[in-house]
Amino acid sequence: MALLGLSLALHLFTLILYVRLPLRFAAFTVFPVWVWGSIGLALGVFSFIAYRSRLSLLTVLIWTFTILIISDEARSLGRIGMEPLDEGPPKRHAGSKVLRVITFNCAGRTNPTDAVRGFKPDIIFLQEIPHAYQLKHLIDDLFNGAGDYRYDRSKGCGVIVRGSINGEIKVPKYRSQLLSAEMPNGRHLQLLNVHLQPAATNLRLFDRECWHEHSQNRNLRQIELSYALGMLKQKTSHPRNPTIIAGDFNAPANDVVYRLLNPEFTDAFDEVGTGWANTYHRSLPLLRIDHIYASERLVPVRSRAFKRTKSDHRMVVADFIYR
Q: What is the three-class DSSP state of 183?
């Protein structure tokens, strides 16, 4: 019974923390919920094997249900039969031409042209891109030189569009780009490319300093994104234009920082993504930290994460139609 009590106590503690996401417990909730769920399940299974208690089976069912409801990965894996996003030119959706968007952290090593060429995107958000000429090569390769781009060397970020960029607002202090673009069909978009505060990597939960580092780290990301969103709302000349916010948020999908984007913006992968959701690390992706969000005038119809060589991130691709 002690094992069952421990498992149920861990379940209650986990459930409360992942729903409320208090700042002081950021070191606990930085892990995917199934990490703690696997511990609770193991306690329940061991208790059943040892004591054959029916309550053990109930504990296992409770944990299983909680993992399926809360875990980010379960939603996309459960979309069996939904139209997948495959490499190649974007397909029309319900008779409408789609707007294809990519976000990719190149980690300073990946050639973005090789990574994105097969997808024929309309807009590309890049982080950790070391040289401006790489963006120029993309323009020439994808759009025959007819597109446009902006590159910020100090931030290592760049945005490429199949159209023209007609406005740029400097975002001081942080690694963000705020742009206005006009697409070939005449539609205007607001684009915010973000690369938030690097994540805390101290996982020694027995160390008090670890908890302080994670809470401070989460707070800094909230401040950074709040600042960028404030500039987006105050400085853009046409705030009602469709808006896309994409990039490397350096925070797991359950992080409280994403609540700053609700309800105005929709996470494309969370809404329609298929396959394994997580984007970091490329070889063993346990966290979904790369996202594409869009305002209500853009409707996501497909999304998927793709593995690419050299970068430690997976690339996220999303298709939208105009509402």
A: coil
Rounded to two decimals, the pTM is 0.94
- 55 inside domain: yes
Look up residue 96 and give its DSSP letter. Answer: B
Give the H/E segment covering residue 38: helix 33-51
Q: Are residues 132 and 240 in the same domain?
A: yes
- Under the banding of pLDDT at 50, 70 and 90, the label for residue 230 is very high
143 CB-near residues (< 8 Å, 6+ apart): 162
| Domain stops at, among 19, 51, 70 | 70
pLDDT at 77: 85
Per-residue model confidence (pLDDT) at position 238: 65
pLDDT in tens, 73-97: 888 888 877 888 999 999 999 889 9
Residues 120 and 171 in one domain: yes
DSSP characters for 48-61? Answer: HHHH--HHHHHHHH
Nearest to 242 by CA among 183, 294, 317: 294
Q: pLDDT tens for residues 237-251? A: 666 789 999 999 999
In the predicted model, what is the mean pLDDT of residues 11-37?
95
Cα separation, 195 vs 174, in Å, equals 8
214 and 273 within one domain = yes
> Given the DSSP bridges, would you call strands 188-195 and 176-182 parallel, antiparallel or unpaired?
antiparallel
Q: Cα separation of 177 and 210, whole Å?
A: 31
The number of folded domains in the chain is 2
Domain carrying residue 57:
2-70
CATH number for the domain including 165?
3.60.10.10
First-last CA distance in the chain: 55
In this structure, the answer to whether residues 52 and 175 fall within a common structural domain is no
Q: What is the pLDDT of residue 237?
A: 61
- DSSP code of residue 156: T
Phi, then psi, of 127 in degrees rounded to 5: -125, 155
Q: So what's the pLDDT on residue 106?
A: 93
Residue 193's pLDDT is what?
97
Is 88 inside a domain boundary?
Answer: no
293 & 204 share domain: yes
